Amino acid sequence: MQEQYNFKEIENKWQQYWEQQEIYKVEDLSERPKYYCLEMFPYPSGKLHMGHVRNYSIGDVVARCKSMQGYDVLHPMGWDAFGLPAENAAIKHGIPPATWTWDNIAHMRSQLKQLGLSYDWQREVATCHPEYYKWGQWLFLQLYKKGLCYKKHARVNWCPDCATVLANEQVVEGACERCSSTVVQKQLDQWFFRITEYSQRLLDDLKRLPGWPDKVKTMQENWIGRSEGAELTFKVDGTEDEITVFTTRPDTVYGVTYMVLAAEHPLVSKLSAGTPEEAAVTQFVNRVGKQTELARTSSEKEGVFIGAYCINPFNGEKIPILTANYVLYHYGTGAVMGVPAHDERDFEFAKKYNLPIKVVIYPKENQELRLEEMTEAYTQDGVMANSGPFSGTPNRQGIRKVIQYAEEQGVGRGIINYRLRDWLISRQRYWGNPIPIVYCEKCGALPVPDHQLPVMLPTDVEFKPTGESPLKSRPDFVNTTCPECGGPAQRETDTMDTFVDSSWYFLRYTSPRDGEQAWDKEKADRWMGVDQYIGGVEHAILHLLYSRFFTKVFYDLGLLSVDEPFDNLLTQGMVLKDGTKMSKSKGNVVSPEEIIARYGADTARLFILFAAPPERDLEWSDRGVEGSHRFLNRVWRLVYSVKDQVIGAPAVDANKNYVGVHKEMRRLTHYAMKKVTEDVTGRFNFNTAISTIMELVNGIHTYRDKVAEVERDASILAEAINSTIILLTPFAPHIAEELWAATGHQGSVHKEPWPVFDPAALVEDEVEIVVQINGKVRERLNVSATLNPAELQQYVMELESVKALITGKQVVKIIPVPGKLINIVVK
RNA sequence: GCCGAAGUGGCGGAACUGGCAGACGCACUGGACUCAAAAUCCAGCGGUGUAACAACCGUGUGGGUUCGACUCCCACCUUCGGCACCA
């Protein structure tokens, strides 16, 4: 062992050793308990950033600790390798996307290896590899054959900069999630996955995920957006047309004073045709129809009368039909009944356009609500009024009764609506997984037969400045033969959204090299679900919802035995510098490469785990990094200074009655075992786990310095040193290996069992008790730890110092808490 | 506007079940070692106050429950995150 801590040498040495010994290789099937530890795989953008370092350091601590606790740990890594940046690089620098991607992967893989992460690299997957995307295509076809995948001409979000459509989930405040350009609406033929079919299950099963943060579950719940209500049908006056509305308040149906259709609603132009209002309506629809949802919903409510009326099926009233910007075509039925008295939006709208307002809910029976006095809609519960036979019914009950009546009369029904929309998966891009569909003039759209998979993505491509996918101009790709009739056919040139690729990678890891199937069910069943999933909260909806959807579909197809992919989820916070997210534009980026070169991977890992608990944002601190590095140096020097006494020391005799500093040293050691284990495997508070190890190291320092070498108990010292090294292993694996070897041990410390504390070693003879008078600390004293409350009270109350504190006062009450304090209440 | 999380020294954070607020680290101050510096080691480090003790104040603000509140309850303020005409 060298006197100096030479991290560079050590880290290289052990990384090579791990690779040669295949120490992190995991068996597919064994008798040992399994643990699947997974971190969100990265997009190979070129270099690791600190967010990656944090994500993967957290995962590595969990994986290593679980492995040392005797689990078979599946801890894989791979690449979310399709995506737009590769194409942008190609356009900008002329490098083919495949070359660019594979180069980045090679570099980032070596960076991950430099961090000393315990991945089983033999399981590495890359979504752009034909052996991976082949099964993505196969899975697409399984959904297609099950009717969960369809093509539709639809109004969709289009990002002009990315030159592709986007899923709703990828549109953030009207802008492209990726490049922030304003998203426009286009009518296009697009492929969808029928995720809405799973709305209720996706919602219900959130309850079965106690290991997920509430925040993420709430976000998914809001996204799914379930709402209970009714569909009611109104006949259009003088025609055969009908308007169906969705409402959550059927109890207010007697208060309808107008009807509103979305601008896109087909009846708008049909009903206004030939009326005096036609020109105004057309103008309005043209103007509003061009606006994005965001533009519409952020501007003031406006609308126009379309020149037609409909009939309220409940009271026969004739009410005007309008079209307005505040009604969304894609939600519900694209039509809304206007009940201004009991809906805020309707109230605002009715006031603006002088539409009649009719009160049909009173706060309480006989407590009339006067229209003249209303300054806002009354949206709370109450009693139905002016509602024919329903008047006097409490409105909650009324909801059910009105629905029942509507169903009997054939004018409506109870229904549940969801905000969730089908997942638009086709992208007009090149660098993605080709959709395995061919179009034959005679036979129509057909799935590519399984034996022809994968539809290979050509890699020798040229990009034109038009932004058009290079696949379209490749006759060798487009032209094929029809699998049905053998005639000429054309391939689909759209590729899949990369979220499709990342929605099942956790399954492929269980059989990464299987050439016969997407995964081996037996293996997948052994490893799934993921015991711990770790990643950024930015994927709370997109990736996590899609993955849940896929898992449920695969469960239904019999491909899996679980229907939720991730049992426990940890969402880590961002890495900040100077209070804001690191970014090139702000010039506050700290590169992992630089930190590793300067201080080593162990220091980088230790700091990033120590600086904050994982769920919180982490403020980067160069000083803090130095502090972590200093700590590792301190551990190194400590071990160096006592190694000769530690090597060959006999094991601690747990039955021996140690006293004084020796006992205290042993107590500290076992306390650290207990605390670190709890913090790492229970609450994932790595910062406090590390601070506990620091306390142990400080304690050993004191023991070494205060106790002469001949007086030291070699067994206790060895136990303390060995425990320090083992407890440090998940956080700083390289230095731990080196110190383990230096203290006379054979083999990898990672193969050592995780320590289990001895409760007997934690027992103290004496404890410090605080004496409080009226809740204020007045004195501290050491008492025997075995005293029960009565004995404690007696002992304390007889002390002269305590008597002095309460002289002249009347003792009202005494609360003794053994091991902690005694509170004397006086007057 | 609605929902959620958080607010603790100069800074990052700790206090897990209502029981000594500030563990651990950073920064800073003083000392040891050194010709000197770095490194290292030792000590101090919330505020007011005192010669020093004592005492008092102190976990966003105001109230409450309790022998006792960073922790529980009510109201409010601030910051961050999510949702936002969803009928």
Automatic annotation (TrEMBL):
CDD domains referenced in this protein's UniProt entry, alphabetically: Anticodon_Ia_Leu_BEm (cd07958), LeuRS_core (cd00812)
Coiled-coil-forming residues are: none
What does the UniProt keyword field contain?
Aminoacyl-tRNA synthetase, ATP-binding, Cytoplasm, Ligase, Nucleotide-binding, Protein biosynthesis
- Catalysed transformations (reactions): tRNA(Leu) + L-leucine + ATP = L-leucyl-tRNA(Leu) + AMP + diphosphate
Q: What's its top-level EC category?
A: ligase
The GO biological-process annotations, alphabetized, read as:
leucyl-tRNA aminoacylation
Instruction: State the span of motif ('KMSKS' region).
Output: 581-585
Predominant location category: cytoplasm
Q: Which residues form the Aminoacyl-tRNA synthetase class Ia domain?
A: 420-621
Localisation:
Cytoplasm
Instruction: Specify the protein name.
Output: Leucine--tRNA ligase
What organism is listed for this UniProt entry? Desulforamulus aeronauticus DSM 10349
> Source gene?
leuS
